[in-house]
# Entry
Amino acid sequence: MRLLLTGGTGYIGSVVARDLLGAGHEVLALARSKSSEDKVTALGCRPVSGNMTDAQVWLSTIGGVDGVLHLAATFDTDMAAAEAAFLDALVAWASDRPAPLPLVYTGGCWLYGAVGGTAAVEGSPFDPLPAFAFMVDHRARLLGEEALSVRIVHPAMVWDAGGGTLAAFLSAASQGEPPVVTGSLETRWPMVHRDDLARLFRLAIERGEGGADYHGVGETGVAVGAIAGAIARRAAAPGPVVRSVEDAMAALGDWAAGLGLDQTMDCPGTRQALDWRAEMPGVIEGMTDA
# Structure
């Protein structure tokens, strides 16, 4: 397949690109700078110069594609507006096709809110953090577009031995400082290794059905204090300390409320529909052995 990927230089997008290429797909990767162009070229992708807000310009230059995987986000105050501009251009561009354009849209576990021990599964109601509520609106809009065949991937908290959602814990421990946990040591995070998640994104574009939500979950819920503690022990650093959600938001922005969400998440529909299962070790084992 000839595929367009946004976010291909990111923590998740780079391994999605690698997985797609390894499966024999041709990948066109959006790059908004010369540095980004160099990165996606090194991965083996064909760079497409531009950004989300000028998509109407560069989409007209790339020729036909068999599908789009949208993983890009600015994580800035313009995050919702930038994505809306991209989606407007994408819908207009796809409207000239004889058949709906397959699109993988990225949601996330934070769209479900603090579900506690009642695991969010495919089809569970959304209760998003305000900073990410636009994603629920965009999902609904995309599902109503006749020009698109949309499938949505909702990742759990993404990790690998080098970082992801664990980056702040790893950085603190490597400097001999205690990892800082938001809210409570007992707060649960659903977890997924980024290599497993990359495979799910590929399956979603290859075999996913229009209108379907897919969950990328390796572990239903792991206490954050246990994760941070494993990282601290490995580095011989002090044990984790707790800060309030309010302090986290003051330091990092409103999105940081997600770090304090007590969540569990599962993926029975995804396992059945795409025959996808996590293959990487669990996060505590991974942090202990890394």
